[in-house]
Amino acid sequence: MTDAPPLLEVRGISKSYVDGAKEFKVLDGIDFAVRDRDFVCVVGSSGCGKSTLLRIIVGLEPPTAGTVRFEGQPIRADNPQVAMVFQSFALFPWLTVEQNVELGLEARGRPPGERRERARRSIEEVGLTGFENAYPRELSGGMKQRVGIARALAMEPLLLCMDEPFYALDGLTAQSLRDEILQLWSDPEHPPRAVLMVTHNIEEAVYLADRVIVLSDRPGRILAERRIDLPRPRNRKEPEFYGWVDELYSLIV
Amino acid sequence: MAAIAKVSLSQIVGLVEAIDEVGGQADVATISQEVEMELDRLGPIVDAAEFLGLLRVVDGDLSINDLSRKVLRANVKERKAIFRDILENMPVFRHVTTLVRSAGRPLGKRDVIGALAGAVGSHHSEAFFNALVYWGRYVELVRYDSEAEQLSLRTPSK
Fold first, then answer.
1. CB-CB: which of B8, B21, B138 is closest to A237?
2. Do residues A248 and A43 make contact, with C-beta atoms less than 8 angstroms apart?
3. Which strands, in side-by-side order, build the sheet including B25-27?
4. One GO MF term, please (chain A) (predicted)?
5. Would you call A20 an interface residue with chain B, using a CB distance cutoff of 8 Å?
6. What is the ipTM, given to two decimal places?
C-alpha cells in the first residue's frame, strides 16, 4: 500500500435546496472514497439524491457542506481527469458521432489534431468505428450511449462517472453494454482507472461493482457499504449472486 | 425480415448471454420473463439471432451453440470480427458486396435495393438493405453515407 491519496475522496457532503421558506435536504453527511482500480456503484431508490451526489462529485453543482477531493485537490468542474456519462446520452442531433465525441475536448481547448486523434481512439474502443460521420438519429439507443461513453473516454479520464447510463436501454442492450464497460475498466492500459456509477438497479450494481454503497431515501445517507467479492464474469442466476441482491434489497426496503 | 432489420447486434449478444446464464437452453416464455421483454419485442431478436446462426430454435425452445459461446467469450473487437465473418459469408449480403466490388465505386441505395430484389424478392429487399447498413456498418464491412445515400465497402481498422 502507498500513502497516495485516493482518486476521489468525498467528505461530509450535504445538499439542501430552498423552496420559498422551506428547506429540502437531499443529501446528508456522505463520506466515501474511490481508489485506483475500483468499480463502485451507488444504489438507492429514485429521489434519494444519488444523481445530485454525482453532479456534486464532478463539480457540476456545489454542495451545501462538505468537500470533494480528487487526488487530494479540491474538485473543479473542468477537471479533465473526471468524465461523465449521462442517462439521456446528451448528444447534439446536428453533430456527427465524431463531432459529438470531440466536443468535450473542444470545450477544454485542445488543438484540432489532438482532438481528432483522441476521438478516433475512443470511438474505436467502444466499437463505433464506421459511424464517425453518422448522426445520432441514425443510431439505436445502445449506439447513442456508446457515443456518450466515447465522449467521456476521449477525455482520458482517471475516473469515469456514470449516471444511470443503461436506464433508457432495453434489458438486452443494457447487458451487452455492461459487459463492454467492464472490459474497458479492466484493461489497465487504457483509461479509466476507476468507475463510479449511480443506479437504482441493484442487480446491475451486483453484476458490475466490487463495492456497492447503499443510500437511504431522502435525505440520502449512507446505509451500508458492501464489498462484492464474486468472481467475474458473474452469472446473474447463481445463488451467490442472488444472495447479494437480496441482502442489498433488504437494506433499502 | 422488416422487424429483424431493426434488431441490434447488442440485443442479440444480450439474448445469447441470457440463455447462457440459464444453462444454454430455455423456452421463449422463460427468456421473455428473464429479460423482462414482451414476446412481441423479443420475437424479432430471436429471429435475428437465428438468422445469423447464433441460436437454434425448435418448437419455441432456444439453445445456444459453439458460435454463440465464442461470441460470449470474445471482447468488443473480436466480437466485431466474428459478426463481420458471419455477415460477409451470408449469400444475400455477399451478393451485394460482390456487386459493389465489381462496380469499383459506391452504389446508390436504389441500385442496391434493386439488386437485392433479384435475390430476395422486392417485398423484402429494403429490409435486407437496412439490415446490411445497420449491421454491416457496425462490423466495418460497409460504409454508408446517409446524405448521399451511397453504399461502399470498407476495410476494417486493425
1. B21
2. yes
3. B25-27, B61-64, B55-58
4. ATP binding
5. no
6. 0.87
Cβ–Cβ of B21/A236 closer than 8 Å?
yes
Smallest CA–CA separation between A172 and chain B, in Å? Answer: 4
What gap in Å lies between CA B75 and CA A201, rounded to an integer? 25
Report whether A40 contacts A13 (CB < 8 A): no
Q: For chain A, what is the domain count?
A: 1
Q: Are residues B144 and B98 in the same domain?
A: yes
Interface test with B, best of A94, A125, A166, A176 (most B CBs within 10 A): A176
CB B133 within 8 A of CB B154: no
Question: For A165-208, how does the pLDDT look when each residue is reduced to its tens digit (9 = 90+)?
Answer: 999 999 999 999 999 999 999 998 888 999 999 999 999 999 99
Instruction: Name every chain A residue with its beta carbon within 8 A of the beta carbon of B154.
Output: 130
The CATH number for A215's domain is 3.40.50.300
Q: What are the grid coordinates assigned to A3, written together?
A: 500513502
- Whether A114 is covered by a domain: the verdict is no
Beta partners for residue A222, in sequence order: A215
Burial class (CB in 10 A: 0-12, 13-18, 19+), A170: buried
**Closest chain A CA to residue B142:** A130
pLDDT at B10 over 70: yes
Neighbours of A91 (CB within 10 A): 22
Helix (H, G, I), strand (E, B) or coil at B108: strand
Domain termination site, one of B51, B72, B93:
B72
With respect to residue A220, please indicate whether it lies within any of the assigned structural domains: yes
The answer for A42, left when phi > 0, alpha when psi is -120 to 50, beta otherwise, is beta
User: Which one, of B114, B132, B97, lies nearest residue B1 by Cα?
Assistant: B132
Domain assignment of residue B39, yes or no:
yes
Q: How far apart are CA B134 and CA B87, in angstroms?
A: 11
A174 touches chain B (CB under 8 A): yes
User: Which of B13, B76, B133 is the mutation pick for testing A, counting most A CBs within 10 A?
Assistant: B76
E-state strands within chain A: 8-19, 22-34, 39-43, 65-70, 73-74, 82-85, 159-163, 194-199, 211-215, 222-227
The residues pairing with A212 across neighbouring beta strands, listed in sequence order, are A41, A226
**Looking at the domain assignment, is residue B32 inside a domain?**
yes
Residue contact A174–B76, C-beta within 8 A: no
